[in-house]
């Protein structure tokens, strides 16, 4: 494959690779950078590509490996090794102290949301949460297994709606 044919093939593949880059990075600018890095590595290693093989798969592999390498490099940059006897790895990105209040508020909200459920949904949900299997809940409550699954599903849906403020919290 000539360099011109190779360049044309890479250009055609850019539309297929961009969504994958965006999925990996979750940021448009980082996705464009990853796409560019992938093409630079592909041009640099053009002689390693075997004619007749799957170019798209080769590029996906380069992109995935480039992303992993960049991620590992970023993590290493933000971490230093404490050479004392304890040998702790300490993340040096920023210092943050938490007192657990956020967790307590979240737990209070979760408990309040569960207590707000109708008993018809709360009982099967709590039994499932405690580790009971669907068939055990159905036997204990003397209802069909499909009803148990439906009530647990509805309970989860209600809780998800009630606790939506915690959706993107870490």
TrEMBL record:
* Family per similarity comment: Belongs to the sigma-70 factor family. ECF subfamily.
CDD domains in the record: Sigma70_r4
Please indicate if the UniProt record lists Transcription as a keyword. yes
Q: This protein is called what?
A: RNA polymerase sigma factor
- Give an example GO molecular function: DNA binding
* Entry-linked Gene3D superfamilies: 1.10.1740.10, Winged helix-like DNA-binding domain superfamily/Winged helix DNA-binding domain (1.10.10.10)
The species this protein belongs to is Anditalea andensis
Classification via InterPro entries: RNA_pol_sigma-70-like, RNA_pol_sigma-70_dom, RNA_pol_sigma70_r2, RNA_pol_sigma70_r4_t2, RNA_pol_sigma_r2, RNA_pol_sigma_r3/r4-like, WH-like_DNA-bd_sf
| Key words, A-Z | Sigma factor, Transcription, Transcription regulation
Domain RNA polymerase sigma factor 70 region 4 type, chain residue ranges per copy: 108-158
Q: Which GO terms describe its biological process?
A: DNA-templated transcription initiation
Q: Where is the RNA polymerase sigma-70 region domain?
A: 17-73
Q: Which domain of life, per UniProt?
A: Bacteria
Q: Which SUPFAM superfamilies match?
A: Sigma2 domain of RNA polymerase sigma factors (SSF88946), Sigma3 and sigma4 domains of RNA polymerase sigma factors (SSF88659)
- Keyword Transcription assigned to the entry: answer is yes
Instruction: List, alphabetically, the PANTHER family matched.
Output: RNA POLYMERASE ECF-TYPE SIGMA FACTO (PTHR43133), RNA POLYMERASE SIGMA FACTOR RFAY-RELATED (PTHR43133:SF25)
């Amino acid at each position: 494959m000539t360099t011109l044919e190779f360049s044309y093939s890479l250009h055609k593949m850019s539309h297929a690779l961009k969504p994958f880059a965006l999925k990996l990075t979750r940021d448009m600018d980082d996705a464009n950078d990853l796409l560019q890095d992938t093409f630079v590595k592909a041009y640099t290693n053009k002689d390693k590509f075997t004619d007749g093989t799957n170019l798209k798969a080769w590029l996906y592999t380069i992109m995935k490996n480039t992303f992993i390498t960049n991620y590992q490099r970023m993590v290493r940059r933000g971490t230093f090794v404490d050479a004392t006897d304890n040998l702790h790895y300490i993340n040096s990105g920023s210092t943050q102290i938490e007192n657990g209040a956020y967790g307590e508020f979240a737990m209070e909200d979760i408990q309040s949301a569960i207590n707000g459920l109708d008993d018809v949904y709360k009982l099967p949900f709590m039994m499932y949460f405690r580790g009971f299997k669907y068939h055990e809940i159905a036997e204990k409550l003397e209802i069909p297994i499909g009803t148990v699954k439906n009530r647990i599903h509805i309970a989860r849906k209600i809780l998800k709606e009630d606790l939506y403020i915690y959706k993107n919290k870490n």
